[in-house]
Design goal:
Belongs to the methyltransferase superfamily. Arsenite methyltransferase family. By secondary structure, this protein is of the alpha/beta class. It is 27% helix and 19% strand. The strands form three sheets. Strands 1, 2, 3, 4, 5, 6, 7 and 8 form an eight-stranded mixed beta sheet that branches.
Length: 416
């Protein structure tokens, strides 16, 4: 497809009896190009053949990826509020922790109504930080984060959908007056092409994103761009949708499934491998929940596929080890973070109680010692002496011994 045939002219076709509305023509052209020219490969959702200027199918197809137009149409024109979504992906304010609810209450109602996120992307220890929000939409998370970073901090929102950005920009003065300072700015652009937005390398302490990475055809480019913009020790903290297996191509290219954050969802293990490949060693899962598909037609199409909303944290820390190694190290949380006086949650498996000596692996020790969390912890030990694999972190020594022979149930070593 996409080539012109220069043979003899065919018969003259009769004029169209009915003209399609422009929006229908655009969607048909996009679907045509997705199906015949841009079927994504199974690896990380990347496109083997980008649209070409020589393609005769129309000006829309000169875009780098037609999935962008599907997402723009779905979130900019079709959806009018979070009530229009067909899954339980969206988190409303009622699910927010108690400390966050007063901040959300100060945000303009129109901004809140156009929120389509699937998690909470307000990690602790943000005072004075520079934060970048990838896929900021109507600005709900940006305006919540603006209150957490304070007048000395900065929040930048990036989104490709002009209608959503218009909502965010329309209420900047409202939020400036409510907060008493203006520390927010927005950029129109693609989060796969962050290098085009004039953002300084190594500028940000924290990058967040809320249910947007799955909508990007080139997820590797998003992760590489985030890594480049983070300071050493900086954190990419984001919520997104993942699948329990690789999503088949026929579902990946369905416009509604893609817009609902299902078609573009990565298989969870592919995501972890991709993050490590890019340079984010040892991805940490903070929390997760299964998604319910509330539309019967969509559920019948999806079949036995299962989807999950999950929040991850990725640190820009070089040299993290592939597995959790034991160096006899420990930390003590001081209880000094206002959002977490009693317990600090590093991830789903590390709830660190204030005042208690908490043994950690080498990677966890470095994540706390080399990030913005360091002032809130006391650190015990170093990496001079190695004691083997850290028990309870998903890996175990594959060998048995005379004193303690290996049982099959003790070792889940796969096929190797």
């Amino acid at each position: 497809m996409g080539r012109r045939f220069d043979g003899p002219p065919g018969p003259t076709l009769p004029p169209e009896p009915t003209k399609l509305p422009p929006s229908c023509k655009k969607l048909l052209a996009t679907s045509y190009h997705v199906i015949f020219n841009c079927l994504p490969s199974r690896r990380f959702g990347r496109q083997p053949r980008p649209p070409s200027p020589a393609d005769p199918a129309g000006p829309l197809l000169l875009l780098e990826n037609p999935m962008h137009e599907i997402v723009k149409d779905y979130y900019g024109r079709q959806l009018q509020s979070s009530e229009d979504l067909k899954t339980s992906a969206c988190c409303d304010a009622s699910s927010a922790p108690a400390w966050l609810k007063p901040l959300l209450a100060r945000i303009h109602p129109e901004v809140l109504s156009r929120y389509y996120g699937c998690g909470l992307v307000c990690p602790p220890a943000l005072a004075g930080c520079r934060v970048l929000d990838l896929g900021s939409g109507s600005g709900r998370d940006v305006y919540a984060l603006a209150q957490l970073v304070g007048a000395e901090g900065e929040v930048v929102g990036v989104d490709m959908t002009e209608e959503q950005l218009a909502v965010a920009e329309r209420h900047r003065v409202y939020h400036r007056d409510a907060f008493g300072y203006d520390n927010v700015r927005f950029r129109h652009g693609y989060i796969e092409r962050l290098d085009e937005l004039g953002l300084e390398e190594g500028h940000f302490d924290v990058i967040v994103s809320n249910c947007v990475v799955n909508l990007c055809p080139d997820k590797e480019a998003v992760l590489r761009g985030a890594l480049r913009l983070l300071k050493p020790g900086g954190e990419f903290y984001f919520a997104d949708v993942y699948a329990d297996r690789r999503v088949p191509d026929e579902l990946r290219n369905d416009p509604v499934l893609y817009g609902e954050c299902l078609g573009g969802a990565l298989y969870w293990n592919d995501f972890q491998n991709l993050a490590r490949q890019v340079g984010f060693g040892d991805p940490r899962l903070v929390d997760d929940r299964p998604l319910a598909i509330t539309d019967a037609a969509l559920q019948s199409r999806v079949g036995s596929l299962r989807f999950f909303s999950a929040t991850w944290r990725l640190f820009r820390i070089g040299g993290l080890e592939p597995a959790c190694e034991d160096y006899g190290q420990a930390v003590i949380y001081r209880g000094t973070l206002p959002e977490a006086r009693q317990v600090f949650i590093l991830d789903k498996h590390h709830a660190i109680e204030a005042g208690r000596v908490f043994p950690v692996c080498g990677n966890s020790f470095r994540m706390l010692a080399e990030s913005r969390f360091a002032p809130h912890f006391d650190f015990i030990g170093d990496s001079a002496r190695h004691f083997g694999i850290f028990a309870g972190c998903g890996s175990a020594m594959p060998f048995g011994s005379a004193e303690q022979p290996l049982r099959r149930a003790d070792y889940d070593g796969g096929c190797c």
